[in-house]
Amino acid sequence: MRKKIVAGNWKMNTTVAEGIELAKAVVAKSADVPCDVTLIVGTPFTHLCPVAEALKGSKVELSAENCADKEKGAYTGEVSAAMVASTGASWTILGHSERRQYYGETDEKLVEKTKLALANGLGVIFCVGENLDEREAGKHFDVVTDQTKAVLYNFTAEDMAKVVIAYEPVWAIGTGKTATAEQAEEIHACIRKVVADKFGAQVAEDMTILYGGSCKPSNAKEIFAQPDIDGGLIGGAALKAEDFIAIAMSY
Ligand code: PEP
């Protein structure tokens, strides 16, 4: 069954104490959100354990923002999928454009990360999206199609039940520029078709596809009203509990 999801991506923001406070504020307001909307907060690794504690007994789920492409061992500074799962997190974001752009995240690495996340029981919020040059060159459909195929086509239809796709046009992330509802919808429909081509119509119908890129309380309603848009991955606006909740209430 396709889910409605509003997920926050805190990125490299907040100290642990600030993160706990933010998580508690989200929990306090979460009762206002329709019960068919899943709320997820994505936090830095350092925050996962204390935020898991702050979320206990609430409907808010917890995500990491990344995990390692190796199972365990001599990989200084890395955090494995098993470690993420052991904190109480049930999700990880993978393939965010900032990881692809600044940390050399390749499709090959993302296949390994996705394998390990799924093997450790984590749901995966898998990000795709074109940059400005690619959009201006009219390559946006090809870019998201290739990114989706290169990683997700290595998995099974059963695996897809634990995967959510987030379409995040890079030119809209943190820029204040949002894709129009029509621009977002046509890419979401394209991604759904890419999923259908490999895994069948039912898997595609059940796939949750989120929009991300300067989503805020003032534009969420129009974006979420599109037939192939099932919620949002929220960056900047997730750092304010009232904005994050207002976005989740836009359904
Ligand atoms: C993101 O980076 O996942 C994101 C959607 O950021 P913002 O909402 O700040 O554009």
What series of H and E elements makes up the topology?
EHEHEHEHHEHHHEHHEHEH
Q: Can you count the helices? A: 12
User: Which structural class best describes the helix and strand composition?
Assistant: alpha/beta
Using the alpha-carbon principal axes, give the shape. globular
Question: If you compute it from the alpha carbons, what radius of gyration comes out, rounded to the nearest whole angstrom?
Answer: 17 Å
What is the averaged pLDDT score?
Answer: 97
Strand content: 15-25%
Largest sheet: 8 strands, parallel, barrel
Poorly predicted runs: none
* Approximate helicity band: 40-55%
Distance between the ends: 17 Å
**Order of adjacent strands in the largest pleated sheet:** 1-2-3-4-5-6-7-8
Number of beta strands: 8
| Attached small molecules | phosphoenolpyruvate
How would you characterize this protein structure?
It is a single chain. This protein is α/β, with parallel strands linked by helices. The protein contains twelve helices and eight strands. It has an eight-stranded parallel barrel, surrounded by six helices. It is globular, with a radius of gyration of 17 Å. Phosphoenolpyruvate is lined by residues 9, 168, 173-174, 212-215, 233-237.
